[in-house]
Design a protein that fits this description.
This protein is an alpha/beta fold. The chain has one domain: 3-Layer(aba) Sandwich (Rossmann fold), CATH 3.40.50. It is built from eleven helices and seven strands. The protein has a seven-stranded mixed sheet with strand order 3-2-1-4-5-7-6, sandwiched between helices. Strand 2, helix 7 and strand 3 form a beta-alpha-beta unit. The chain is globular. It starts with 20 loop residues before the first helix and ends with a strand. 41% of the residues are buried.
């Protein structure tokens, strides 16, 4: 795959002046210190190695798989009617599994990931001949404009120096009126630890909302795993976006 030349990321200004210095100390800042190609190679090493092999187990222990499934099962994000679903950053196939289970039986599901090893793991875990698999970088998706009517993207946007690039690509491949299910690591204390473990940045909710607005992506509804998550603003960013 051709490497994408993105400019070296700049140090981010803290969107929350009162954010604790401890968060910044914990958060992994590699993405702001090296070129995008160097950072991407590091991410491939992380997910292609032992951590990636344990991703499914980690997702079960953290309850992301069962709690995420409830969102689709209860139709808080309704996959019915979507005929071409793109799963970006498929990892071990967590969201793709929900798409296969709760989407229409005739819907196509395309799984993408930067890591070839993770795609192999997703294929083995899903045990289905319905999905197609493609190695892809979110900053330059290998699909035509308006190819999909639904996009799912779980904890992948934070692996780009500039999230606007990834959101613009999602919007480009999505038909008008198409929907995005987005999960992202938030700039909270727990998010900082996630950043250190998985070598990613964190994203600010208000800042991300402004970026979506600039791109014509309506921030339709914030989704929460449980009422407790909503009460304590926990679990990271989980939102349904609609392309205007």
């Amino acid at each position: 795959m051709i490497k994408t030349k993105l400019p070296r990321s700049k140090k981010r200004r803290d969107p929350k002046p009162g954010r604790k210095a401890l968060h910044r100390l914990i958060e992994n800042d590699l993405i702001s210190r090296v070129s995008y190609d160097e950072y991407r190679d590091k991410v491939q090493q992380v997910y292609g190695g032992p951590k990636g092999a344990l991703l499914t187990v980690a997702s079960m222990v953290s309850l992301h798989i069962p709690l995420g499934e409830r969102i689709f099962k209860k139709r808080k994000f309704d996959l019915r009617g979507a005929k071409a679903i793109l799963d970006i950053g498929s990892g071990a196939g967590q969201l793709a599994g929900h798409a296969l289970k709760y989407g229409d039986a005739d819907a196509t599901v395309t799984c993408t990931d930067l890591s070839h090893q993770m795609l192999r793991r997703a294929r083995a875990r899903l045990k289905s001949d319905r999905p197609t698999f493609a190695s892809a970088d979110l900053s330059q998706l290998p699909f035509e404009d308006e190819s999909f009517d639904c996009v799912t993207c779980g904890y992948t946007l934070e692996h780009l120096p500039n999230p606007e690039v990834g959101l613009a690509e999602m919007s480009r491949v999505l038909v008008p009126g198409g929907r995005i299910f987005l999960l992202a690591t938030e700039d909270t204390f727990s998010g900082a630890w996630t950043s250190r473990l998985w070598c990613c940045r964190t994203l600010n909710r208000a800042e991300l909302m402004r970026v979506c607005e600039r791109l014509g992506l309506q921030w339709k509804e914030e989704l929460w795993f449980t009422r407790i998550h909503k009460a304590f603003r926990a679990g990271g960013i989980c939102v349904e976006l609609v392309k205007r």
